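Many introductory courses stop at the sequence. We go one step further.
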Amino acid sequence: MFESINLKVNTSLKVETYGNGDYCESAGWHIHPEYELVYVKSGSGQLNIGPKKVPYYNGVLLFLAGNIPHGDFGNKDHGDNQEVVIQFSKDFLEEKLKVFPEFSEVQLLAKKSKQVLIFDGTTHNMVGSDFLSFKFLDSQQRLINLLSILCKLSKHGVYRPLFDTLPMDNFRKEEILRLEEIFEYVNKNHDSKISVEEISSSLGLTPNSFSRFFRKITGRRFLDFVNEFRTSKAVEFFNSGPSGISEVMYQCGFNDPSYFSKQFKKYQGTSPSEYIRSRYA
């Protein structure tokens, strides 16, 4: 869904702090043009961003530009866990801060966020108290705090880009929404047969034009995306408690144990049995 970010009067950013029992109104697949900086204090969860599903285990800190489809990032592992979400417009970063040459490093960081930046544990700990202090600050103090965080991240942050490139600004809104529909289809049908003919027809495309469209947007084959998605779901099932490999294989839409094992190792870096042993040893 398209999320409308409503800023309060006389503010440049929206800040929300969620506790373990809070409801996040944007949960599920959504997209918005604003930049987003997310801090999750602790616990394990999974990042669902574009065609990628990436697990994290001790909280997470990430920065993503606008118009990138994603799901919610938080988790319910710990009663005292908190998630801080900061959203601000493209105009705020690319126009207002551009007036000040001192923010050149922040501008560069913002540019890189189009690839989605996931910061390491040391950086996560370095700015943790800054994020948690937002709920005690007024609007002026929040702005100063955000600029301080962006300064620290641009100078001392260690991160890895989630994508080699993801130039979503080059695509029309209709193309982005079409990509959202594809993700939703796979999410709902990962445990059964994924029909290229069916999804192509629902989008008003032929199977060949669908394949070309998907490769144009994501830079990869649709089958590769489906297999990675399914092995990521398998990881979710294995992490939720001891489960049999065959049971999980069928729950994720695979029918051939050999093929499942091969794809799991390709995208998760280990075999299903090895993953279970390392998880529950």
